[in-house]
Structure formats: structure tokens, C-alpha cells
Design goal:
By secondary structure, the chain is mostly helical. It has two helices and no strands. Helix content is 27%, strand content 0%. The longest helix is centred in the C-terminal third of the chain and has 16 residues. It is elongated.
Length: 73
């Protein structure tokens, strides 16, 4: 059974938490999509600035983040 986050997260014990998000398989985020040939590299800068903007809105600190581009065969 699911538990509310307030019972799981303890900022006194651990102030850092790892959050992970995945993109839907066919929704290409960055780089060149091999199936269509379209280049979506322009999105990388937008995502970067959006992450930092949302951190100020939600009053959280971002310690690190990474973009992973998976190549499809």
C-alpha cells in the first residue's frame, strides 16, 4: 500500500533525495531522431533553463542533473 511522502521523507535524516524521470519511448526529447531524421537538439537548452526556473518556483535546490540520449537501432 502506498504511503504519503511526509511519512517517508525526513529532511533531518537526509536532506538530499534522488528523483528520476523517464521520457515515453517514442517521444524523442533531445538529439537526432533516427526514425524521422528530425533534430531536437534545440530542446536541450530549453530543458536546462526550465529545470533551473522550476527549482526557484518550488523552492528546492538542484544538486545535479543529466540528459541521457539513447540511440535506437
Amino acid at each position: 500500500m502506498a504511503k504519503p511522502r511526509q511519512t517517508i521523507v525526513s529532511l533531518e535524516d537526509t536532506p538530499y533525495y534522488h528523483c528520476c524521470s523517464r521520457v515515453v519511448r517514442k517521444a524523442f526529447l533531445c538529439g537526432i531522431d533516427n526514425s524521422t531524421g528530425e533534430n531536437f537538439e534545440h530542446r536541450r537548452e530549453w530543458v536546462d533553463s526550465r529545470i533551473l526556473e522550476l527549482a526557484t518556483i518550488f523552492a528546492i535546490d538542484i544538486c545535479a542533473y543529466a540528459f541521457f540520449v539513447m540511440k535506437r537501432k
